[in-house]
What does this fold into?
Amino acid sequence: ALLRRSDGRGPRWGTLHLLHPQGALHLSRLARRHGPVLRLRMGGRDVLVPSSVGTIREALVRHWGDWLGRPTSYLGSLVSRGGRDLALGGPCPGWRRQRGAVRGALARAGGRLGPLLWLQGRELCEELRSHGEAPLDPFEVFTFHTCSTIARLLFGDLVPPPRELRAFSHCLGELLQVWGCSSVQVLDLLPLLRALPNPGLRKLLRLVQHRDTFVEAQIQRHQVCPSPPPDTVLGTLLGHNFGARGGGLSPPRLHMALVDLFIGGTETTAAALGWAVAFLLHRPELQARLRAELEGVQGPPGPGDMGRLPLLQATISETLRLRPPAPLALPHCALRHTSLGGLPVVAGTVLVPNLLAAQQDPDIWQHPEVFLPERFLAPGTPSRSLLPFGCGARSCPGEGLARAELFVFLGLILREFRLEPGPGGLPGLRGSPGTVLRCPPFRLRMVPCQPPGSP
Ligand code: HEM
It folds into this structure.
């Protein structure tokens, strides 16, 4: 982004790669020099970047009603059927119904999460085992299984065949990657360029088409099925499940709700799992302690075991603190005049919560740049300062699912395998550019070990 400082200290131009993890950290360094809320001008709009937990909470929790909007954009509108989705849409009656229906359907599905995650986790471990001890890049495997978890939750036994689902999860990954490309992003900033041919944009539209065809086919399969599986998220959204809230969504809203759950829940959770594995490769002794903790619990870890496996839980929290998969959350937009950190704010201002910086605030965390799960075992940990899922009215509706999934999948992996670096050595930990903060590609060896309790 091309930036001009607009904090009254004279104009100064600069560039910033917002989709690069270093971009978020650079923003926080600027913020530390210029106060907890950085004020910028970007693409003709005022942009505020709060980088402390206090200012993020002030905006999104205390003044949540002021910041409920999302900024509109050319690309956002192309990929979201004109903003009819949950994540990119602004508050209107259709959006409120969609949000209530999705949150209600996810809460209802929570009851069958344990068995579903065990089944998916077992399949994940089987796939990892099928590679023997040959080096493998785990990211694609993780992405397929997080995508498959969402598919099982949405469609129950009517899940599409694995080949179709694998192609779909690949399509989602590519879609986010192409959308984040600077040659495509520039179309949001410079409208004149929209008149010129743009191969990146053509690819993006092809991927959106693939995504929509897949989702539409699943909805139709469900609608024509004489006895659709009970208790699926899609069933609840269609109003099939007795007593469920939901139903009454317009076809585009229903379609986009499913898209949001897939996009929101696939790459983010896979990225967090990838980071956890990367950090554990750097800390073999922590792996051994985690395995010992898992051996002390009967049977495979379930979502209900979080209290009994504190080190596993702490490892996940620390991974989400140090490398939040959505480091700049999603942008918010002020619906009316308001204020932040003592600064007056006009309606239409964009807010970019810098979660990455807030979670590495040296005033809150000791050695903030070090991976130290043990900090979450000590009494008085500032857990309220952990915001990887955002906060307030637009916080992530998939938080419970993501936390349970990370807990069960990582627990099962550590119970079954010892993680060892592949031929390229230890993975880098600085992150690679993209809409989701991912670990740079690496390969590792998964060495099977005897699961506790097996003969
Ligand atoms: C580790 C995994 C995940 C992380 C770190 C994460 C993080 C986030 C963050 C930071 C936001 C933006 C909050 C804001 O606007 O301030 C968000 C929004 C959202 N997430 Fe997640 N998420 C994860 C998993 C999931 C899952 C599993 C789902 C779905 C099942 C999901 C669905 C969504 C949706 C639909 C929104 C938009 C909410 C709205 O605009 O009101 N996410 N997520």
Observations:
- The beta strands are 2-5, 13-15, 37-42, 45-50, 332-333, 338-340, 343-345, 350-351, 417-421, 444-448.
- Residues 4-15, 242-246 have pLDDT under 50 and may be disordered.
